[in-house]
């Protein structure tokens, strides 16, 4: 009897799990990307273990600096490919396939009831599918490579309920930012979040991924939406293996929040993700760049909503669109969305993380500002001395049209 | 484990991007992480070997990058004392052998003060005054005492 997290971790550890317990859980899938794999492989080698526990359960997408931006990165990626081949890791997704979390969803590894650990903080995204998804560092990942298991302290769970229909111009990203504004960047530290209510039930899988993706921005270990018929429909013909969904069973929550979906579009201002304002308060702020993409908002639904505003209009500042995966890009091309975005003056880059973490492809200069659909606006995140504002793809598109932060409702 | 060093003081929500900016991550040469530690928040961060960071809530929030605790370790920091830590940073610090202590001493300290940390007894001492800190579970202390998870696993083999 417990929260979704307690139920999943209980099953994975073979005994009942209660908040506060230290357990050792079996890991169903381990994900590490080009960035974190480098250190994970080094730690694994230093552990003097010869073979990974199960090459079929390790997934390595190349997304953070892909294609390689310089010779050092290229060499590290070459070594990683060689190691993966030697370990017979079949799920290596090379340059252009997509962002790790999107790839995990599309290839059917993000499954209800599973324990999925990623060497990336946004691995909580898999909670959109009813999985316990959490992020760890490279040495923890090496431990999973070696043993297939990891220790956890079972977290307490915060219940978050959102009810009502979104007004025009308001999306999953806006309610996500609104939730972070109240819970704060450390309000869910060491805890898990569970999302309920009519708004969450009505959300697409894409919207639920946006929501769960940012659970870490409240410090959460996991953010989970209970799996339902929509989850099942997305996973049909896609799931990598059989799964049995887990729901809460007479749970005890440490805290509860209730939100109404009737809000204005939201913007997180520098330099904290919980520095969130109604769009009316920040409208007119000058920006130099708009970025539509990332594991938070780079899916077809996001590109489509940006295109709904950019159709027949021209952007006034440099506008980067980075699809979350090859599949998203292909659908955008086939549906004409890509043509709409290009005609409006946007630049479409290859699938990947791009400038989100300040790595390459659109890093900002000192004194510049970016309106971005990504998940972090930390100081120096996209380049030293640059400001990052976070908003929805609709807000980003309206901002691109005006070259300053703009209310998307005027364009719908 | 005991540490004694000069304090570097920072506030709440010190994130991994300011501890080690994303552009410095692509190398397996750990020493270079130390050269850029805290660059995003404090260009004058030049600790002496053994110095201690004292901070507010949610230290190390953000990315899963293990280069963050590595950067502090290679910069010479012996221990981080904060009101609370972000969970991934917490795990990473123990895994790379960087001792961390949860204690509410932020208001009691000025930059440059001498801080003493006794990990085994769960005590932080500043100017002769003792403050209690949360103690780590035994198996995490064992990992730290081994110098990190890699060394711990090798010792168990």
Q: Which labels suit this protein?
A:
A: 412 residues; alpha/beta; Aconitase, domain 3; five-stranded parallel sheet; globular; B: 157 residues; seven-stranded mixed sheet; LeuD (chain B)
Description:
The complex is a heterodimer of chains A (412) and B (157). Chain A folds into two domains: 247 residues, Aconitase, domain 3 (2-Layer Sandwich); 139 residues, 2-Layer Sandwich (Aconitase, domain 3). In chain A, 33% of the residues lie in helices and 18% in strands. Chain A contains 15 helices and 18 strands. In chain A, the strands form five sheets. In chain A, strands 4-3-2-5-6 form a five-stranded parallel sheet, sandwiched between helices. In chain A, strands 16-15-14-17-18 form a five-stranded parallel sheet. In chain A, helix 2 crosses helix 3, helix 6 packs parallel to helix 8 and helix 12 runs parallel beside helix 15. Chain A starts with a helix and ends in a 10-residue tail after the last helix. The mean pLDDT of chain A is 97. Chain B has 157 residues and is α/β, with parallel strands linked by helices. Chain B has one domain: Aconitase, domain 4 (Alpha-Beta Barrel), CATH 3.20.19. Chain B is 29% helix and 20% strand. Chain B is built from six helices and seven strands. Chain B has a seven-stranded mixed sheet with strand order 4-3-2-1-5-6-7. In chain B, helix 5 crosses helix 6. Chain B is globular and about 45 Å long. At the A-B interface, helix 2, helix 3 and helix 5 of A face helix 4 and helix 6 of B.
SSE order and pairing:
The complex is a heterodimer of chains A (412) and B (157).
Chain A: H1 4-13, E1 22-26, E2 29-31, H2 34-46, E3 58-61, H3 71-86, E4 91-93, H4 100-106, E5 115-118, E6 132-135, H5 138-147, E7 149-153, E8 157-163, H6 172-183, E9 192-196, H7 198-202, H8 205-213, E10 222-224, H9 229-235, E11 255-260, E12 266-268, E13 276-278, H10 279-282, E14 289-293, H11 294-297, H12 300-310, E15 318-322, H13 326-335, H14 337-343, E16 347-348, E17 369-372, E18 387-390, H15 393-402
Helix pairs in contact in A: 2-3, 2-5, 6-8, 12-14, 12-15
Chain B: E1 2-9, H1 16-19, H2 30-35, E2 52-55, H3 67-75, E3 79-82, H4 87-96, E4 100-102, E5 114-118, E6 123-126, E7 129-132, H5 138-146, H6 149-156
Parallel strand pairs in B: 1-2, 2-3, 3-4
Antiparallel strand pairs in B: 1-5, 5-6, 6-7
Helix pairs in contact in B: 5-6
């Amino acid at each position: 009897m417990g929260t979704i997290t307690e139920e999943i971790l209980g099953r994975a550890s073979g005994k009942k799990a209660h908040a506060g317990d230290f357990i050792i859980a079996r890991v169903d899938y381990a994900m590490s990307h080009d960035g974190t794999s480098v250190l994970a492989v080094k730690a694994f080698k230093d552990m003097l273990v010869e073979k990974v526990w199960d090459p079929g359960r390790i997934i390595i997408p190349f997304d953070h600096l892909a294609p390689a931006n310089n010779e050092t990165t290229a060499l590290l990626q070459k070594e990683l490919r060689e190691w993966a081949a030697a370990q017979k890791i079949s799920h290596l997704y090379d340059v252009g396939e997509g962002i790790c979390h999107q790839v995990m969803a599309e290839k059917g590894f993000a499954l209800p009831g599973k324990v999925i650990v990623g060497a990336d903080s946004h691995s909580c995204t898999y909670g959109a599918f009813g999985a316990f998804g959490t992020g760890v560092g490279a040495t923890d990942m090496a431990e999973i490579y070696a043993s297939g298991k990891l220790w956890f302290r079972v977290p307490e769970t915060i219940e978050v309920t959102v009810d009502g229909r979104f007004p025009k111009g308001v999306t999953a990203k806006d309610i996500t930012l609104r939730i972070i504004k109240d819970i704060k960047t450390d309000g869910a530290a060491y805890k898990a979040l569970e999302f309920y209510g009519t708004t969450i039930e009505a959300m697409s899988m894409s919207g639920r991924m946006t929501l769960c993706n940012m659970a870490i921005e409240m410090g959460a270990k996991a953010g989970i939406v209970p799996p339902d018929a929509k989850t099942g429909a997305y996973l049909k013909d896609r799931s990598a293996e059989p799964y049995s969904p887990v729901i809460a069973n007479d749970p005890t929550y440490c805290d509860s929040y209730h939100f109404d979906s009737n809000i204005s579009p939201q913007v997180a201002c520098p330099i904290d993700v919980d520095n969130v304002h109604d769009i009316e308060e920040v409208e007119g702020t000058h920006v130099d760049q708009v970025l539509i993409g990332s594991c938070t908002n780079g899916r077809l639904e996001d590109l489509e909503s940006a295109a709904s505003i950019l159709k027949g209009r021209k952007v006034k500042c440099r506008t980067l669109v980075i699809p979350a995966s090859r599949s998203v890009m292909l659908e955008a091309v086939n549906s004409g969305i890509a043509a709409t975005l290009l005609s409006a003056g946007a630049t479409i880059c290859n699938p990947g993380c791009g400038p989100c973490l300040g790595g390459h492809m659109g890093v900002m200069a000192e004194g510049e500002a970016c309106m971005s659909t990504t998940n972090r606006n930390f100081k120096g995140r996209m380049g030293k001395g640059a400001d990052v504002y976070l908003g929805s793809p609709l807000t980003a598109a309206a901002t691109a049209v005006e070259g300053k932060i703009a209310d998307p409702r005027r364009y719908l | 484990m005991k540490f004694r060093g000069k304090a570097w003081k920072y506030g709440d929500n010190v994130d991994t991007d300011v501890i080690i900016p994303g552009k410095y991550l692509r190398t397996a040469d750990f020493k270079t992480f130390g050269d850029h530690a805290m660059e995003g928040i404090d260009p004058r961060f030049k600790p002496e070997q053994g110095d201690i960071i004292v901070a507010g809530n949610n230290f190390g929030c953000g990315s899963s990058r293990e280069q963050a605790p590595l950067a502090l370790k290679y910069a010479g920091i012996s221990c981080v004392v904060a009101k609370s830590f972000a969970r991934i940073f917490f795990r990473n610090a123990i895994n790379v052998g960087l001792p961390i202590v949860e204690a509410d001493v932020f208001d009691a300290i000025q930059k440059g003060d001498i801080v003493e940390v006794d990990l085994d007894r769960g005590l932080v001492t500043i100017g002769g005054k003792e403050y209690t800190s949360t103690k780590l579970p035994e198996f995490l202390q064992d990992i730290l005492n081994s110098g990190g998870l890699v060394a711990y696993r090798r010792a168990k083999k």
